[in-house]
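Deviations from the work plan: none for this task. Representative record:
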Amino acid sequence: MIGAGMTRFMHRALETPKELAWHAANAALASSQLKLKQIDCVVLGTAPDAFDGVHMKSEYLADGCGGRGKPFLRCYVGGGTGVYAVAQAYFQVASGMFDTALVVCEEKMSSCQPHPQAAFLTIFDPITEQPLKPNLLWIFALEQTRYMETYGITIEEIARVAVKNKRNALNHPAAQLAAELTVEDVLGSEIMAWPVHRLMVSPTSDGAAAIVIAAEEVARRVSDKPIWIQGIGWSLDSAYWTNRDLAYPEYVEKAAWMAYDMAGVKEPRKEIHFAEPYDPFAYKELHHLEGLQLAPKGQAPRLLADGVFERDGDLPVTPSGGLLGVGNPIAAAGMMKICELFWQTRGEAGKRQLPGKPERGVAQAWGDLMQVGTVVVMGTKKPD
Amino acid sequence: MKPSARIEDHRTWPGAIPITSTYTAGVAGQIFFDALKQSGKLIATRCRPCKQVYLPARLFCERCLDALTEQVEIKPTGRLISYTLCQVDRDRRPLRRPQALALVQLDGANTVLLHYLLDVTRPEQISIGARVEVVIKPKRRRIGSILDIEGFRLVHDPEFSSKRTPRRKGR
Amino acid sequence: MNDKYAGTPLGERELNRGKIFVNSYTPKLHYQWDTGEGIGRYLGELKRGRLIARRCDGCQRILIPPRMFCERCFRPTDEWIYVNDTGKVLTFSLCYVTWNVRRLKQPLIPAVIEIDGASAGMGILHLLKKVPPKKVRVGMRVRAVWRPPAERRGSITDILYWRPATEERE
């Protein structure tokens, strides 16, 4: 990876989706010091067309991503897209067919009225579930209850994630909802769907993020600090979400081991220096950390309480501020985490820079109906 | 798999996705629609290296990804690139009167604009290459929308008519 | 604020001042979903006041909602099996907002209910009622409350809701 860039994440942007995508693509190109004509192919990750309200959304966005006249690929796995797009772009280059790839993720959720949820509703089975008039919050609340019940986790332990991430986001200039909060503030916020409180939910957002990846020879020529994609993994679980135990994300574990095996990581807890798990809801970060093998089952809350996951802790988690603090423009959110891995390992994360020299990080994104895990391991050392 | 013997069990389930999409014009769109609304002007942006003039104004050049800052005012005259006469509406119901639409390249722009073609109901009235003018609504009826443009209207161009090979009678 | 990251946030004030040009479009997105054989039968049995599942002899699972092929074994499922209209709460929530963020005074109580007679962990999504929200527990035994036969139409809502079962578990 030789370049990264993103826009601010906003509740509602003036920019059209194309303009948002362009800002991110341009920033990534500038950061990579490549010109558009040196980009061999373009990969676009963007979530349902229904959000932006444009049919064939990625084809529409291609103009803003340098995709005009170039080989072009769209990928989409719900929220997992931002990390999945890196895997797709990896193949483009690793196959030898292309030397460079520009990877862009964009979402403009504010177009979807009266609320982006309207587009989400058909994630529930139209015949066996929608007649119950479900709410997207239900699946998260139901999963959170199961997680808490199975391991005896308290609501205070969950609230700490929101406190940490929103505080971390205070140092992210692009953040939408950075704040200095206490656990009491979080628990004092209105209950949306118990046990989910409003301050435990990431916002809907408009935004875009992008990266540039290049084959080794090109990377070495152009960049003095290329960051290596050491491992990629992804796994999809069944859409019969009520037929499986929601307490543990198997799909994240499978994706994680796929990436760790490729990266030669045998003891993730020791060999991963920092992590950016997907945090659309506060409990999800803990849930995903366990799937990522970075905490034993049910133990992530305790490690958080012990300070292990703080910026100055043993294993910093979500130093970017995450979805809770920076924002959640579906596909772009995962890509924002990839950008964070890039900046942290290059020492370019500004006020968010982690102490020491973090050499290897893992980013993970999640999506669909409690279904998909997408994982990327990146670091300063070239994998063997 | 054997088909179910219970025919009455097979059925369909109706539903809908209830969304309304609201679109912002965007940064460049604000420039274009503001000029159209306030002054009835058509503003494009130019990319000098790529030799392209984009109408409506765009924030960036899709060919080189540069930011576009140079604005160009485009005159409301141009050339018909293509057209159609539509006989049915979106739901395939017949229209009472055919709707004429045109793709027009305005003088000085590289892009092509789609809009209604006014006062045309029969194909014999139209030819590719014909000169058109843009008809813009009076200021009091403009709101900052593409419909602030009424449409295109064919203009009489003696030079064009004389060069044309007549291929239909009764123009 | 900062010029490192591009983007022009719009607040309600900007939008209401009428200077931002906005267009709206409501597409007609209407669907007729085919139920397929498995769910077609499921709905038919719901109308008759019964829950039905399918068994896969490959993995020995009894599957609800029923499906004509097993997604694990990737082979056709083998037999229709009636299951009970009682079960156990696997997880639940107390929902105080509608999908378009209107507040509710009384919470809806969605739950995943493990169905007696189906395989362990085999749950369906439904709603709980007639139980004080604070008394709902994971592991609680519940039973279905059905619509009167004449009002059923072959829908998951032919079960109105699930309520705590008073019988002890065997």
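Chain A has 15 helices and twelve strands.
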